[in-house]
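Duplicate of #3305? Posting structure anyway:
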């Protein structure tokens, strides 16, 4: 009976580790596409032969649709993360999760991206109310804010305010005791 309970606990721990790492890979994919879409769209509009005009509505629409496109890539990234997690040993999976949980730099990047998304989701409608539709203002503002938040984190890191180093406790790195 105790053996089946231990097996059940190991399966639950593996499922939790897989879930965490899959969500993390999906979040990183969304952040990357939110950062890349606005400059790529701007370059596309400016380099087109029949010069189209650049406006805020189209930029915001491209930004949040880039995030939505990123969502399909996020799903692919999540599938890749899931496949990678399923094919690794439980010890390696646990080690990767603990390292990801204690990575202060990645946590700070995620925090800045979230703060930027919330701020720009509110500031974009307040600033460009008559220049774009409401859905583009809110979602596009959140996408722009995610990218701006990531850039803010990197600027802070370069200018001398790096994230603090969080040492991983030894108890988390040690293998579980055998019963």
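Output from current build:
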């Amino acid at each position: 009976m105790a053996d089946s309970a231990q097996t059940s606990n190991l399966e639950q721990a593996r499922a939790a580790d897989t879930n965490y790492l899959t969500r993390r890979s999906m979040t990183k994919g969304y952040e990357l596409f939110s950062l890349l879409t606005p400059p790529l769209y701007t370059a596309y509009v400016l380099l087109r032969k029949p010069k189209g005009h650049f406006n805020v509505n189209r930029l915001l629409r491209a930004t949040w649709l880039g995030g939505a496109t990123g969502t399909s890539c996020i799903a692919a990234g999540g599938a890749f993360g899931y496949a990678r997690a399923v094919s690794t040993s439980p010890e390696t999976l646990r080690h990767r999760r603990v390292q990801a949980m204690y990575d202060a730099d990645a946590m700070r990047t995620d925090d800045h991206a979230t703060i930027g998304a919330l701020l720009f989701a509110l500031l974009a409608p307040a600033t460009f109310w008559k220049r774009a539709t409401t859905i583009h203002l809110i979602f596009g503002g959140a996408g722009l804010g995610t990218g701006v938040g990531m850039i803010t984190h990197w600027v802070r890191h370069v200018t001398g305010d790096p994230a603090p180093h969080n040492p991983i406790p030894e108890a988390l790195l040690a293998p579980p005791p055998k019963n």
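Confirmed duplicate; merging threads. The chain has one domain: 2-173. The mean pLDDT is 83.
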